[in-house]
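Mitomycin antibiotic biosynthesis protein (marine metagenome), 295 aa
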Amino acid sequence: MAEIIHLDAETTIDEILKVLDQDAAVIIENVISMDAVEALKSDLAPYLSKEAFGRDEFTGFSTKRIGALIARSNACRELALNPLVINVAEQYLNPFADGYQLHFTSAVSIGPGETKQVLHRDRGIWGGYLPRQVEPLMSTIWAVTKFTKENGATQLVPGSHKWDKERKPDDTEIAYAEMNSGSVLLYTGSILHGGGANKTASEIRTGVFLHYALNWLRQEENQYLSCPPSIAKELSTELRSLIGYSKGGYVLGFYSDPYDDEAKFESVSPENMFSKATDSFDSLPNPEELVDKTS
């Protein structure tokens, strides 16, 4: 039976990256405190109490999914900026972009009787247009409740990011992300994975999904609608930048204020909506460097 490597929260970033390169998945145990877990449960409870079940086999007829977590949950805001995860995402995605962004947020509760989800690769959301050499995602699932094979722990196929596209795993090649509350699963966009089957009578398995992607790709969750400016103004500059209220390149993602009659905000960073703060792309390089970057 395949297994996912478990590391502790004191493990170096280099060691975590080594396991991600080898298996495309790793579990870091006990990253956040039980107080932080309880804060997550409290924030999510009003939304997960609704009858928000999936509409097909993929989303799960006994599975609840809610998004807009940055707008809805202070605890999720803290998770999104967790230093360990941020450092891993930055270094893992660095070879493929000038930066990264928060791409997707969701709280997922798998209820009793749910069947296993079909194995898939998350990079498929962009179709087949990204070369295999480009890894677009570094994703996380935070265990709000304990994850067990019986209650729907995520299925993963370690090493499948290096497989031929058509290869299918047998049962012995599938591992399960069993972990305690407060732990986090890190996995890439190229690994085969899927939600597990919940075979228990009464347990509900809840996880918080926060995915990080290259900053030049369109986000799966439209953060500007899920967290509009009226809410984003309450966030830190760092968190606003992470969800996309910043430029992703020297001209990528600028905006011009349609109500600015004095032309003070033409082709500027979205951060200008909230403050005079600058971002890392405010200063243009010399023309030769700019051309070189686009060649």
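The mean pLDDT is 93. The beta strands are 6-8, 25-29, 63-66, 100-110, 137-143, 155-156, 175-176, 184-188, 193-194, 205-214. ok done for today
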